[in-house]
Amino acid sequence: MDLNAARELFETSQDLTVGIEEEWAIIDPQTLELVPKYEALRADGDQDDVLREAISGELISSEIEIRSGRGEDVQHALQLQREARRRLFALADRHGVGLASTGTHPLSDYRDQHIIDTEHYRRVQDGLQYVARRNNTFALQVHIGVNGPDRAIQACDRLRPVLPMLLAISANSPFVDGQDSGLHTARTQTFTKSFPRCGVPDPFETWGNWQDYVELLLRTNSIVEFTQLWWSVRAHHSYGTIEVRICDAQTTGPEADGLIQLIVACVAQALREIDAGEVPPAVPGRLIEENMWRAIRYGQDGHLLDLEAPRIEEYPAAEAVDRLKAWTGVDVALPELNGAQRQRRLIDGGASPYEVFKVCVDETRATYPSEEKIA
């Protein structure tokens, strides 16, 4: 791992380029159970000029990730990702499988899933064992270009208290192991609270401090690559971006697109504050963790703490979207009820996990049409 090369990459990086990564469950269209079809989709996708670059593996063979590649701004990245989604659904149709987009799969047993055969994921499985095998989760991740290594680290620091707000907004996974977890984002409890070097990082302030930490982990044989730092926001050494990794996968196209735009707007506002020297003092991790738990448990149905107010008080988590819109000055379209809220309303009405998931799968398909449906 060449940390000096990573630093140089940030020195030449461009502000507010955008890359999008979305993780999808590959399912049987009738039973809605997970099916191990990644390798077949990958092989066929290699024949498509767009999917050849867009498709990536993500731990298990019943999961597939698509990536937009570099967009010059958020609208360009969304355009690229929409085309990749459209082609992915056409590919799935040809193979007789479905695609689902929620933070966890509510039906299939994690013990029945198979880790894909790559060097990276063999290392993950060997190193983490049960923690890796248990992680059948699906996320939305956004890369945002930042010019300057110190600015990148400072932007990550500034986003720390924002992460629980984005989590509450994006919550979309009440089920785990075929049961109602009682949570709004069981994905976060399964992944973020289990993986090492995960969740909300400490503030690092400078690239030098970040580099010292990564070098310590390398020297002590704690990691062999920087991607083993699974923080919910991190500087990405390969792209010259900061990667926001806090969000559940989103059920519909419009809410995924709105959330992506909101995340990019948050990073843009953080950079404006950094450049103006107006960044508020770092919030203690223990207070951010309180909001993380509230977001995990109650999502937008609960309350969050206003961590930057002179006197910390609660506010309804349903206000998080409007608060971030006001902070960033950007208006985005997001539904009044997020994915977890819609699912929990069905659960409260007596729907089974299959029935709830069927609604989600149908919502997803309706907003991500394939080539055949467009034609």
TrEMBL record:
Has UniProt tagged this entry with the keyword Cytoplasm? Answer: no
Keywords noted in UniProt = ATP-binding, Ligase, Nucleotide-binding
Q: Does the keyword Nucleotide-binding apply?
A: yes
Record's Pfam families?
Answer: GCS2 (PF04107)
The EC code for this enzyme is 6.3.2.2
Q: What residue range is the signal peptide?
A: none
State a single Gene Ontology molecular function: glutamate-cysteine ligase activity
Q: Which Gene3D superfamilies match?
A: 3.30.590.20
**Under which main EC class is this enzyme filed?**
ligase
What superkingdom does the record give? Answer: Bacteria
Quote the InterPro entries the UniProt record gives.
Answer: GCL_type2/YbdK_subfam (IPR050141), GCS2 (IPR006336), Gln_synth/guanido_kin_cat_dom (IPR014746), YbdK (IPR011793)
Which GO annotations describe the biological process of this protein? modified amino acid biosynthetic process
Q: Report which reactions are catalysed by this protein.
A: L-cysteine + L-glutamate + ATP = gamma-L-glutamyl-L-cysteine + ADP + phosphate + H(+)
Q: Could you tell me what this protein does?
A: ATP-dependent carboxylate-amine ligase which exhibits weak glutamate--cysteine ligase activity.
As for family, the record states:
Belongs to the glutamate--cysteine ligase type 2 family. YbdK subfamily.
Q: What is this protein called?
A: Putative glutamate--cysteine ligase 2
Q: Which organism is it from?
A: Solirubrobacter pauli
